[in-house]
Amino acid sequence: MRLFDRHLTRRRFLQASAGTAAALALGGLPTASRLFAQSGSFNMMTWSDHFYPEQLDAVAKATGIMPQISELAGNAEGYTRVREVGGQLDLISGDALWVPRYYEDSLIEAWDINELEVAKTLYPIAREFPWWTTPEGYLGYPFGWSPVQIYYDPAYVSPEPDSWEVLLDPKYAQRVMVENQPEEIPAYMGKYIGAADPYNMTEDELAQATDAMYLLKPNILRLAQQNTDTVSALANGEVWLATGNLGTDERVLEAGGPELKLFTPKEGTIGWMDAEMIVAGGANSANIRPWLEAAEQPEYMAQNFILYGRPLFNEAAYKILVDNGHQERADRFLYNQPEVAATMTLKGPSPSTAAAVEAFNEVFAAG
Amino acid sequence: MTHAMAGGHGVPPAEPEAGRQRRPLTRLWPALPAVLVLGVLFLGSMAFMVVFSFWRTVDLDIVADWNLDNYVKFFTSPTYPGTFVKTLVMAAVVTVTCLALALPFTYFLVRYVARRWQRIVLLAVIVPFWTSYLLRVYAWQAILGERGVINQVLLSLGIIDEPTRLLSYNNVSVYIVLVYVYFPFAALALYATLERFDFGQLKAAQDLGARPDQALRHILLPQIRPGIITACIFVFIPIIGEFLTPIIVGGTQGVLIGNPVINFFRAGQITQGAAFALIIAAFVTVLLIVFRRHLQVEDVVARG
Amino acid sequence: MWSPVAERIDPLESMPVSPYARLTRRLLWVLAALVMAFLYLPIVLLVIFSFNEPRTPGLPITGLTFDWYAKALSNRVLLDAVRNSIVVAAIVAIAATVIGTMAAFALVRGGIRFPGAARVFATLPIMLPGMLLGIAILIFMRRVLDLQLSLLTVVAGHLVFTVPFVILIVAASLQGFDRNLEWAAADLGADSRRTVRHIILPLIWPSILAGALISVTLSIDEFVVTFFTVGPQLTLPIYIYTQIKFGVTPEVNAIATLMLGTTLGLIVLGMALVALRRRLRRGKEGS
To answer: Could B146 and A236 be called an inter-chain contact, meaning their C-beta atoms sit closer than 8 Å?
Structure first.
């Protein structure tokens, strides 16, 4: 090891050992290299708002199971990961029409969610969505949903809008904010131009949607990377119009912003609904069902709604909310109307995603 | 036993030919771990991407259908070449600015600050960058935005009547934030070479009658050239692949070429994204090759 | 204005200083101060936002509270993520510095036939967008190496884009190295190893340190490559960047402030210890 020694000058050695000591002191190394969770655990990849810390702790106490949670950056990213890591994940969340896509690629299992007692607390309609039903079973345990709505500041936006068109109105130049989702924005425009399936547009429809995007572009102040961006911009008045999920107006008020109004465009809107999917061949999948049984209890779902403010598919939780004085808020968020979820155009991958993204890039990558 | 250093017996190697025979393997072994990391891991990974770039993505599945379409699309579209050129210009401007700031900064640090304080200042420069990039960029929004610090200051001083949008969500804000983000890299790169410079030489030059700026230009700059080149590389090259800053502070105007590439990946169009990224990398590689004389790296003596 | 300590008289300080030079020095000082202000302005805001009441970090400031700190410190997921980030960054910094420094030696002195090409090759990883690297490494690790993803695979992924930085910066320093020093040492009987250890490394350590600092910086906030190469763990950037649907809360600002405060505190502590040791040593010598 002659020449390796040269790198161990006293300073470097001190630095190295300090670093290692710190790591060990923080309990880092042994746990950091843990590849699989120990018994009583499983690996889950989900959106950050599906579970909250107190819930996880309480469920762990009750069942002895504590999942290792990693976060989803987006549906396509999660899909790529599951395709590559397969059984290293046990449970993954996915939106709407991504779910059957996972199934088609044999990435997830179909199962009978009614095995779980707690499934009875779900709205019946949520247990029977046709796009999640297969002969072999249901494709995921439903969680929540939200339509995309348009929020606006009535102080600056008039007359009262009712259509996607308001986003294209030149008098709102640089006053609009939309999420940075290259697959979704063409779909929004697709809804506007009345395409039959905004996620699977014909060439003609796509051309029209592209024209619409050209009109949209000068109005956009910026594309939101996260919900924080939208809320922040609406709160400090930088933008007057924005697309967003349910609850954005609440968050804007809380951030010191103006009172906003919202509407669902008359041409119809996009929406998402998500579910927890069991990954095929997951090493720890035995722990999933008992854990879901405990974690999806209505009490937790009700608290989740209070924390995050968007409708969930748990019916019993609605009753809890009502009993605890949250009915007004729950109704505002359409909690008790899960059938609305079925009327949304659902997010999902499609054969024309490539063309849609190319169109988006043509318009927005031009600077 | 042979060692990786030239000579070893007091004078420059008198018989380079004899040494050269034994040189390749024994002198290069320190590169082994790097070869593993870069050669195996990086090249192995990129091999997939290179192949994918010639295939197709059909409905999220990568299909082994060899074609050049992905590449053609880059050049036949009106958008991409233009944005690419713009990115190169932006990278160049940011690089020049970072150099213009970092050079006097590190010069001051090395020349006028006591040695043990130098490290502290260096750490003080870099430690803020160990907080989240996202948070720092959000903070920039709070500075440059319509209701941001700058506007509020200007308004309260009466310099402007209305909040200005000149500094937010456009190329200017991207430029400012990129300078902010990449300054430490330039400073660190310059510090590394400047620190070894013998400032006595400047004094000697002045004694011999040179003006200070002449001394700087003819003595200092040539000797720290490797550091300057490194600083340029550290700033220019990564900016080519930047996409996050443009998204967060660039609005729809401050788009760089990284953005459409990322969009393809986020939508599952891996083959298309790979092709574009490789085009960009190829171009930058060509640039590096064209300027290779400036990037000279080998030790003249070692070549024998 | 800093002045050198008595034990080390800077020869430049004893030179007669022309007013020209004095002015330049003053101007440079102002510039340096402005640069530091520029660097820290967003940080100051970041810290302020951690005390702001609203759930969404940013202006306007509506009220001050310590709530977010309380929440952050009781958020186990967040704390685990921070711990993982630090561990990964520490390992990456050490590994990248060692690997990169060794490679720099080979690059500059190894007598490679096409050193320019080697250097361009070493630069390749940093010109590619992170997502390309991330997905590529994921596919390679899974399909070719059949590895289980974990923090170790994250480290490997990070090494791909940190090692080039270290190579470049150390190579630049080695390039201009005065060979006479080595030959003099050899004349005095030092073999290669001692030469390296006592002559070369001490003189190029600033570039090694710079490389290490750059590696830490790149690794500790890296999201994209990390997302694709991590196992069932979280790092802080992943935690932050995936709060897409509901956004980040000032908990993150609180954690960032704590991390910043701790690091700066450690630096001050280190300085104090060094100064103390120096004083003790001088005291001993004096008596």
So the answer is: yes
